[in-house]
Amino acid sequence: MNIPLFTLPGGIHPPEHKSASVQEPIGQLPLPPYLYIALAQHMGAPAKALVNPDQRVLKGQLIAEADGVFSVNIHAPTSGYIRSIEDYPQAHPSGLLAPCILLETDGQDEWVERHPITDYASLAPADLLERIRKAGIAGLGGAGFPTAIKLNPRSTAPIDTLIINGAECEPYITADDVLMRERADEVIAGTLMLGYVLHNPARLVIGVEDNKPEAIAALQKAAAGTPVEVVGFPTKYPSGGAKQLTWILTGREIPHGHHSADAGVICLNVATVAAAWRAVRFDEPLISRITTLAGDALAQSRNVEVLIGTPIDTLLQHQGLQPKQLSRLVVGGPMMGFTLTDTRAPVTKTTNCLIAAGKKELPLPPPAQACIRCGYCADVCPASLLPQQLFWYAQAEDHDRLKSHHLFDCIECGACSWVCPSTIPLVQYYRAAKGSIIQAETEKEKAERSRRRFEFRQQRMEQEEAAKEAKRLARKQAADEARLKLAQKAELHTNTTEPANPVITATSTKAAADNGVDQRARLERILAAAHNTLEHAQKPLVPHVYGEEISAEKLEKQQARIKQAALKVSEAEKKLADFMASQQGATAQAVVSPADDAIERARAKMARNPREKLEAGLETLQKQLLKAQERAATARANGEPTADAFERGVAVLQQKIATTREDLAALPADSVNAVATIEEQQATETAIEKARQRLAEKAEKSPADIRAEQRQTLTVRLEKTRVLLQDAEAKGAPTVTALAASLQRLQEKLNTLQSDD
Question: Domain 4Fe-4S ferredoxin-type, which positions (predicted)?
C-alpha cells in the first residue's frame, strides 16, 4: 500500500553510530544486590511511598502510588526487603538528589499474585485503561508522560489515527530497533489493543525510519492480516518528535499551544505499546526496560533488558567499562541527552540509552563565539522557529518576546546547536529560559492565589460583620417594638376622651423613626455586599498552570455563580425600593396600632366581592411561582440536592394557578357587584371582637408573662413543624422545602426570645 508521506521541514543528518549495538540480541543482566527505585522517574508529581523499612515485598508489588493525576505507580522489580527511603543521586540534568526506595534483593524473584487476561476484548475500554494506569506505564521514549492520561485525552476532537512511533532518530540509540526485530508480535498486539481502547480509530500506523529494514520486515510480517499499517519513511533527524511524525504520516500540523490529540491523533512509542500489552495480557507492571549501552569506552555495545532501579555503574561494569578511555557518560542520545556526573544514579523508566564516550568520540565543544547571523539554525529547525531571535531574547531575559516567538514550541532537538558555526549552546539557553518563565509564572500564580485568599477572607469577615450587625439591629428592633407595645398598652388603659400622653406619643414616634433608619441602613449594606459578590464572580478565571485551558466545567460553575449573584442583587434592590416606598407613605401617617390595622384589613378583605378575592389570590400565587422558579433554577445550576423539591413546588403552584383561573372563568357576570353574606359578615365581626378581647387580656399581662407565653407557643409550633417535616421527607412530598424554611424561621424567633431574657 502506497501511503502519501510529507516532507519534514528542516532537520539534519548526523552520524548514526547504530550498527555496533544491534549485532547481538537483547541481553539480560544478573540480579543486582541492591535496587535504588526513584519516586520521581516520570513527568509529573513524584509517587508516594507505601512501604516501610524492613518490609518484605514481592516482584510486581505496588510500593509507591501515583500522587495526583500526572503521576504513575511504581512497583517492586524483584522480591526482597525494603531497607530505607532516602535521597540518592539521580540521572537528571540538575544533578540533584531525590528520594529513592532502597530494595535489597533476596534472589528468589518471587512474583506477587497476578491475573492475566487472554482476550482483552472481553473487557470494556475503560477497564483496560485502568489496568494500564495501575501498571505504572509511562512513555518509554524519553518523556515519561503517563500513558493512561495520553490514552484518555480531554480534547473534543475525535481520535481517528493512532501512530506508533518507531522512528528512533537519535544517534546511538537502538533500543526500539531491537524490540521491533525480536518482539514484533507484542508491538502489533499492543497496537490492536490500544486501538480498541481508543474505540477503533480509522488508521493504525507504525512509522519507522528506513534505516531499520530488519525491524520494518519483522513488523510487516507480524501485521499481515491486520489493519495495522507499517510505514517506512526517509531518515532525517528529528523525525521521531510527536508533532514531526504526525506531520510526516498525516500532513496535519499541530497548532501552537495544542497537542496531537487536538488534531485527532494519538502518538505512542513502540516500547510503551509493548509494555501496555504485557500489563494487560500478563498483568505485568512496568518494572524493566530495554536500554542501549554504547560507546568506545565499553568492551561491548549492545541492548540489555535491565530492572528499574539498577545502579548505572553496575550496568556499565557488566558491559566492561574501561575507565581510562572514558571521556564522559551521556544519558540519552548525543543530541538531546545530558552528561551524568555520578554513576551511582539508578536506571529509571526513561533511561533509553547510556553512551560511555571515548576521548575522541564526543569531544567537548570549543568555547562559544559571537553569533554571525548566518541563519543555519533557522534552516534546520523542525518547528520553523527563529533560533537566533530566541537566543538574543533568552540572553536579555525578555520573557514576553520569548513567548510571542513560541519558545515553548521548541522540542530541544539540538539541530540548531549542531549546525552553529559559533558553537553556541543554543538549547541550553532555551532550557534555562523555559525554566525561568515557568518559575515566574508559578510565582505569579502563587501571588494571585494569595490575593484571592485575602479577598475571600475580607469578604468573609465583612459578611460576618454584616451578620452580627443584622442580629444587633434585630435585637434593637425587638426592643423598640416592645417599647411601642408598652406605649400602646398604656394608651388602652387611658380614657378615650382623655388627651394623649405626650411622653408615650413621642416615644412611639421616635421608635418607629429609628426603626426605619436602621432598616434602611441594613438593606443598603446587604445591597453593597451583593454587588461586591457579583463583581468577584465576574472576574475572569486564571489557569493554575501557564498554557492550560480553562475547562468547560469551571466555566459553567462560574456562570452559575454569576447568575446567582445577579439574582441576589436584584432581590436586594427590590427590597430596598419597596422599603423606601413604604417609608414615604408612612411619613404622612401617625403611629397606628397593629391590632387596629389588622382589623381594618380584615374588614376591607370582607368588603371585596368574590372576583376580587380570586384575582388577589391569583396575583399572590403568580408572585410565589416566580420566586419558586428562580430558586429551582439556581439550585439546579449549582447541583444542590433540593433542586427536585423546588421543582415539585413549582408544579404545585402552577396547578393552583390553573385551578384559580378556572374558578374565575366559572364566576357569573354579576359577581362583580356581589358582597359577602350575612353569615360571613357575622363571622368576621365575631373574630374581630375575639381579637380585641385577646389584646385587652394581653395588655394586662407583664412583659415577662408575655414572653413566657410566646416561648411556649413557639415551642409547640416548632415541634409540630418538625413532625410535619419528617413526615414530608419520608413521603417525598413537595412541601419539604417550605416546611424546612418555616422550621428555620420559628427556631430563629425562639432563639431571639431566649437571648432577650
Answer: 361-391, 400-429
pLDDT value, residue 498: 44
The DSSP bridge pattern shows strands 302-307 and 326-331 to be unpaired
Task: Measure the CA–CA gap between 371 and 162, rounded to whole angstroms.
Answer: 42
> Could you give the dihedral angle defined by the CA atoms of residues 689, 691, 696 and 698, in that order, rounded to the nearest 10 degrees?
160
Bridge partners, 34 (sequence order): 104
Q: How far apart are CA 303 and CA 25, in angstroms?
A: 7
729 DSSP 8-state letter: H
371 is in an annotated binding site: yes
**381 belongs to an annotated ligand binding site:** yes
Distances from the Cα of 687 to the Cαs of 520, 546, 607, 729, in angstroms? Answer: 35, 72, 15, 35
Domain final residue, candidates 565, 586, 607: 586
Q: Which residues pair with 348 in a beta bridge?
A: none
State the DSSP string of 448-493: HHHHHHHHHHHHHHHHHHHHHHHHHHHHHHHHHHHHHHHHHHHHHH
Q: In this predicted model, what pLDDT tens digit does every residue of 363-406 receive, in sequence order?
A: 888 899 999 999 999 999 999 999 999 999 999 999 999 999 99
pLDDT bin (cut points 50, 70, 90) of residue 502 is very low
> Is 267 flagged in the annotation as binding?
no
Q: Do 190 and 87 reside in the same domain of the chain?
A: yes
Q: Which carries the bigger pLDDT value, residue 213 or residue 620? A: 213
Q: Cβ atoms within 10 A of the Cβ of 524, count?
A: 13
Q: 269-304, pLDDT tens digit by residue?
A: 999 999 999 999 999 999 999 999 999 999 999 999
* Last residue within a domain, chosen from 357, 372, 392: 357
The answer to whether the annotation marks 420 as part of a ligand binding site is: yes
**Gyration radius from the chain CA atoms:** 40
Note whether 464 and 547 are same-domain residues.
yes
Check the CA dihedral 322-326-328-331 and report its sign. negative
Is 593 domain-assigned?
A: no
Residue 251 C-alpha cell reads as 500532513
Question: Do residues 425 and 434 make contact, with C-beta atoms less than 8 angstroms apart?
Answer: no
582 and 647 share one domain: no
Higher pLDDT, 733 or 19: 19
Closest-CA residue to 131 (of 350, 278, 269, 349): 278
Q: 654-675 pLDDT, tens per residue?
A: 888 888 888 877 777 555 444 4
Q: Mean of the pLDDT values across residues 601-622?
A: 70
- For 750, the domain range is 643-664+704-757
Bridge partners (DSSP) of residue 228 are 204
b/e per residue, 78-91, with b = 16+ CB within 10 A? bbbebeebeebbbb
| Residue 100 in marked binding region | no
Residue 203 in any domain: the answer is yes
State pLDDT tens for residues 676-698: 555 656 666 676 666 666 666 66
Helix and strand totals (H; E) in the chain: 21, 17
